[in-house]
Structures are given as C-alpha cells and as structure tokens.
Specification:
- The protein has 290 residues and is an alpha/beta fold.
- The longest helix has 14 residues.
- Helices cover 40% and strands 13% of the residues.
- Helix 1 packs across helix 2.
- The strands form two sheets. It has an eight-stranded parallel β-sheet with strand order 3-4-5-6-7-8-9-10. The chain has a two-stranded antiparallel ribbon with strand order 1-2.
- The chain has one domain: TIM Barrel (Alpha-Beta Barrel), CATH 3.20.20.
- Strand 8, helix 6 and strand 9 form a beta-alpha-beta unit.
C-alpha cells in the first residue's frame, strides 16, 4: 500500500476502509477481517459509529502486527472538552484493544474543541497518539484553529467526491501542510454516481470501474480516501487503482461534475443545533451522515 507522509513525519496509507453505519458488531468484525486479508491497513472508525469493539476483535483475529496497521478513531462531540477527552480516548483504546491509535480526530467542530485539543496534545506528547487531526472543519474554522493551537492538525477529514470537489479547501490544506482525507468519495451513491455518463466513459477508456476512476482521481489530487464497502470483491476492486493514470482530458471532464456544497453542512445553525442535541447513546450514525 502506498503512503503519504504527514506533517509530523508519520506515514499514512493513501487508501483505507470507512466503517460508518456498520453497527452490527459481527458484521463489522467480518468486514474488517476481510479488508485486512485483502490488503487494507488503514481502518477508520469513530466513537459515534458504535463499532470500535468489532474493529478491535478483527485486529486481534487477523494476527497482523500492530505496527503494520493504521487505526483511526474520532472524539465524539459529547466528549470534546479538556476534562472528558482523555477518559474518552482511553475508553476507545480499550474497545479497540490497542495501547495507542495512529490518528485521533475531533469528529465535529462542536463543543470545546480547543480544550479537547489541549488534552489530545498531551496524549500525543505521551506517544499514545501518533498523529492528531480534525474532521469536518471548514476553511474559516481550520485557519483559526491552526493559528491558536500549539500543534497543527496533521489531517482534516472532510467530504470529497466528483460532485463536491472542495477545490478551495484542498488548496488551503496544501498551504498549511495538512493532509486531506476524503470520506464519502462515492457521494454515498447519490446523484447516480455509478451510472454517470462522464465517469462511465472515462472508466471504459481505462478499462476500469467508475469507483476505481474516482479513487484514482482522489489519489492523483494527493487526497487519502476511505470508501465504505461490506463486499470483499469491492474491497479488492478499490485497492486496484495504482496501475493507470488519468489524463488532462479526464480531469477536465470530472471538473464539470462539481456542483458544490451538497450534503451535511457544519456551517448550518440548524445542523449544529441538531448535532449538539445528540448523545453518544443515540444512533447518530444511523440518522445522519458525517
């Protein structure tokens, strides 16, 4: 698996498995075991996904050395304070069955994220977290966050797909040497992405699938992607993107698909209110997409 080097020198796989909405623990364990078997090493979970225990069981069952894996989890809004972040992190480690995580993200730009970051920085200095990051941080929030914290995030996990290309955010992240990690690279199947005429034409040209074209497009933009799938066959397909290149014509055609800010919006007051009303005990991952 190819890697990128984060701003603190840690190497991160360019492609991983996302686990949003795989809440049945037996199913999730099976999915992660399959992913590890076919070659995935980056596994992305979160406290809000309610499946960290399944990830831990799969890691244990795989027999793969811990240092070969890149495990990401995320701090839920309810625990994003200076007092609660460390106990919450420790609970995640217990569920995952690990002594450290490779990447720990603030899941949403909500609650006392500055206090939470100070606590996370302490864990980072104690080498219990290999890299710190954020998720769903828009450019304005990100710049303020960088300018008012000791440690710059290594990663901003944010939506990115052909319909929402986030060109300005990508430019800003490059300026601040923060890696872009894309969730929902297939737009959660919306806008008929898997039958899109432009993407289908490009896929046929390269003898690849639409999914492979999208993941290759992200890879060539230096964006890490974490597509979700429960199919072992799809997992293998998603990994098979390193033997072809998109050309300028392909990129120009994909650019025409960009329709901007669609989906969840963390700058919408109603959305922020809704998120603040959720507790970790509620099915956050079922009812909203992060």
């Amino acid at each position: 698996m190819q890697t990128i080097t984060l701003n603190n020198g840690v190497k991160m796989p360019v492609l991983g498995l996302g686990l949003l909405n795989i809440r049945d623990l037996k199913e999730c364990q099976r999915v992660v075991e399959d992913a590890l078997e076919v070659g995935y090493r980056l596994i992305d979970t979160a406290q809000a996904y309610a499946n960290e225990e399944a990830v831990g069981a799969a890691i244990k069952a795989s027999g793969i050395k811990r240092e070969e894996l890149f495990i990401t989890t995320k701090l839920f809004r309810e625990f994003a304070t200076e007092q609660k972040a460390i106990p919450s992190f420790e609970q995640s480690c217990k569920k995952l069955g690990v002594d450290y995580v490779d990447l720990f993200l603030i899941h949403q730009p909500i609650n006392d994220v500055y206090g939470a970051w100070r606590a996370m920085t302490k864990l980072y200095k104690e080498k219990r977290i290999r890299a710190l990051g954020v998720s769903n941080f828009y450019p304005d929030k990100l710049v303020d966050f960088v300018m008012n914290n000791e440690i710059t995030p290594a990663v901003n996990q944010f939506v990115c797909n052909p319909f929402r290309q986030e060109l300005e955010l990508a430019k800003l992240l490059q300026e601040y040497n923060i890696a872009y990690e894309a969730f929902s690279p297939f737009a959660q199947g919306k806008n008929n992405i898997f039958s899109n005429e432009i993407l289908a034409k490009i896929a046929k040209k390269h003898n690849k699938s639409i999914a492979q074209v999208v993941l290759r497009w992200l890879f060539e933009r230096n964006i890490v992607s974490i597509p979700k799938t429960t199919s072992k066959e799809r997992m293998r397909e998603n990994l098979n993107i390193f033997d072809f290149n998109l050309d300028e014509s392909d990129r120009k055609q994909i650019l025409t698909l960009n329709i901007g800010n669609v989906g969840i919006n963390h700058q919408d007051p109603k959305m922020i209110k809704w998120l603040n009303e959720r507790s970790i005990g509620e099915s956050l991952a079922h009812t909203k997409k992060d």
